[in-house]
Amino acid sequence: MQRTLEVAGTFVALLVEDGELDRELARRLGGFARSGPSGRPDLALEVVLDPTLGEPGRGGLAWGREEGGSLRVEGEGLEARIDLEAGRGRAHLGAASGRAVALGDVTENLLRGLVARLLWDRGRVLLHAAALVGPDGYSRVLVAPSGGGKSTAARVAAGAGWPNLGDDLVAIGPEADGVRVHATPFSGGERPAGPRVAPVAGLYLLEKAPAPERLPVDLAQAVAALVAATPFVEVSAADRVLAFHEGLVRRLPVARLRLAAEPSFHLLLAPPPPQPP
Questions:
Q1: Is the Cβ–Cβ distance between 143 and 204 less than 8 Å?
Q2: Is residue 184 predicted with pLDDT exceeding 80?
């Protein structure tokens, strides 16, 4: 079965030979994955089961480079070789008892890393953040590590009529008319229905606190927090990622947001930038 995954203008063709895994990926990726081909993808990834490998585990994946520049990805029950320049790759997954969930976990982890690298080539990054869209159509991007309150913020905001573009990983990058954030299927809770984009009104470094409060933050602290929230960064790209986030901080309002689980917290967020006359 072939499906095409779309995230922030990047396209990955998934060719999955196992029907159970294909159905699990369809469930996880939702409206971001369409059945069948869709033009020329940025990457065609074949996923096959390999009985010589052990069962997939919950450990992280090790990313490296082959001598010719191709990506080498290895983990419990996973071996993959990806040639991003040629736009093709192959992933071998071990057999798993209970199969679908375990195979889906390791495949989704692989896709997160691959999408991050494809986005970088388009001038965007994946960011550990929740993106909340206000009634004005602008998104407020709340940056925090795992367990930092992103899903709570998204849930409270949804109750106040603010839908989200993601509560775990979103794609963000500068455009000619400002900074935009894109929905992704990589969610910690309720997944967005499908691809969607919104202009960004501000960036917020999220903290849990007894009461909501908005505090100033200097440029260096803001850039450091954004770099720390950017996964799958190769050492060779560290300086470029630093410059990328400095550019975002110089273009957007940035604040530290202490979050309490109450519906009024979103009133602390910045209004959208003024429109040109």
A1: yes
A2: yes
